[in-house]
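Follow-up to my post from last week.
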Amino acid sequence: MTLESVESQIAEWRAYVASAPGINGHDVDELEDHLRHQIAELNGAGLTADEGFLIAVKRLGDVDGLSREFAREHSGRLWKQLLVGGDDEPARRSTGWPETVAFAVAAAAVVQVARLAAEAPDEEPTWLVRNASLFVLPFLAGYFARRRQLDPRRLILAATPFAVAALVVNLYPYGADSATETVVALHLPVALWFAVAYPYMGGTIRSHERRMDFARFTGEWLIYYVLITLGGGVLMGLTAAILEPAGADVEQIAAWVVPSGAAAGVIVAAWLVESKQRVVENMAPVLTMLFTPLFAVMLAGAAVVYAVTGLGGAFDRELLGVFDALLLVVLGLVLYGMSARDPSTSPNSMDAIQLVAVVSALVLDVMVLGAMIARIGDLGFSPNRTAALGLNLVLLVNLAVAAWLSARFLRRRSRLHRLERWQTSYLPVFALWAAAVVVGLPPLFGFG
Amino acid sequence: MRIDKDLVAASATPLVLAILVEDESYGYAILKRVRALSGGELEWTDGMLYPLLHRLRRLGYVTTEWRTPPEGRRRQYYKLTDDGRAALAEQQRQWLAVTRALNDVWPGSGGLLPTLGDA
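User reply:
Got it. Predicted complex:
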């Protein structure tokens, strides 16, 4: 056993100990010093380097127990590590807070420039709404491009969708009160979110594992963003309550703070997911566990009610939007629940509940589709109906196969892996559909 | 003879404090001293010493300083404070009371730790 191999064993041991919660860099230094002393002494007593290492590690105690003891003594650390590296420790370089701030500030600044360029805060010109996601999401993509250190070729590939979107969205000659414009404004953020996936995955978009990571990232990002939004709401409410009596123009303040905050929050939430995964990893599965059964009950109830009463009477454009939102939420819950699930465990009651949710969503989707086709038969295609029909078809295929695979999984005829593969393989379909709407729908309907 | 786990845990703090009264020291040296003092009968899991030392620091019994000896790696030295000395004195009183009581109910054992009798 050579000295180098002991060095590499020590390095491995060090990395393993450092990853344990409650143990910070200084503790690892201290423990390593101890380990080296012990090895040196054992070597002096005639043991080989390898034997010395084994005995010294054993004497230090198992890492789980150590981690527990350190965490008990430094319980604050588990929390403090949220924002700083540890007590008296300089913030770790890998957290990349400065570059996060830079990208967040840039996004906020661009949003403000756009707002001032629109010059009428009360009645936003439609180009502002249409472009909103283009002001923010490129910065998110840039943030990931930097973090993942993309090479120039991949940088160009990452930038291409944003450039194309900017051209398409702004060069199309939309008419006044254009319906296609509204549809594009709704689909562009989705398309661009998938464009963020490319730099997020560091260009390895074919990897199913990385796609699952992106699904996970999306769910956790959403949770953080909602939390940030809630905090921002409290801040704005209190600001208004405090400054209004003093005669300050609260609306003016809000016009500056709210859009900047909303834009910067997108980047900050991504940073939180990136660097603080361990915290949310505990929260997101709990939320999924909590809401999947509730949504399953609600969906099953709705499916039964509409199956009895029929959809025809209640069906209008608004309800359609609600249905689509509901189906997307279900899909999100299923996808997230899957990404947070331990793939090695056998089918359990949660999987059964998920199947209930998926089947109910499927029934609802079929009814919505039926009603929509009837409506298109009566009134013909419109931009809204076309976009909605497409989305529902895309969802139908996904839900149908997901239901079939998850039923097989429950009966142990299939592995969970198949179900995951189906969902990760299907993600590009959503992206392509959203992109197709943004690029293809307006010319199809003459930009009306 | 193997000393009971609870007894090891209870004696850890006074032992470490007493070792630090002699001179400031660092983790590995403290542990070696513990082994030497107990003739190897006090079995510690080495790593557990550090959470204990950090607790003493939090309580203000020791101060710490990172130093790099001329030949060797950077390591953290622990030094007893006045609070630490007071805590050690208090511990000594308590242990003395315990050993006296045991001494009294164990007659004929030749006197448990006779040297402690006059302390």
